[in-house]
Amino acid sequence: MLFCVVGFIIPGFTAIFLVGLQMILTKLGVECSNAWQIFWLFSWIGMIVLPILFFKNLKKKEKAYYKQLRTNLIFFNLFEYIFIQTALSIFFTKANTLCYVSDGQNGIELAFTAWLALPILMIFSYFFEYHTETISEDN
Q1: Which of 46, 72, 88, 128 has its CA at a distance of 20 to 30 angstroms from the CA of residue 55?
Q2: Residue 45's pLDDT is what?
Q3: Confidence (pTM)
Q4: HEC profile of the chain
Q5: What does the radius of gyration of the chain's CA atoms come to, in whole angstroms?
Q6: Which of 22-26, 68-72, 104-108, 109-113 has the lowest mean pLDDT?
Q7: C-alpha separations of 131 from 3, 19, 89, 124, 134 in Å
């Protein structure tokens, strides 16, 4: 839940990170709209695969230490937050709009999709919390 509170503040930072990453790729020779296509592809893959890997990691551990679990959950939330933010943006904008239109469409959609990612992260957090309680009760 603490990450969700912070999530109301950091969407702009993650949006700036994504735009900065796109600019780096453009400097390396990747066309801007292709960079966003790549981001969307990897974010959809990451958004689906990361929870599965995290859940398998939880199931593997017989006895999870609270600090280690907490650290893992923070990293999961951060990466999943960015993946969801980027993946959802495909529904609200187009790569050409993000790259070449300057009529107010300057990536603000990324901040809005970050806020949409928060309820999804809350659901994951409750699921993982329930699962870790089940694991600790079994041991």
Answers
A1: 88
A2: 95
A3: 0.75
A4: CHHHHHHCCCHHHHHHHHHHHHHHHHHCCCCHHHHHHHHHHHHHHHHHHHHHHHHHHHHHCCCCCHHHHHHHHHHHHHHHHHHHHHHHHCCCCCHHHHHHCCCCCCCHHHHHHHHHHHHHHHHHHHHHHHHHHHHHHHC
A5: 17
A6: 104-108
A7: 19, 36, 30, 10, 5
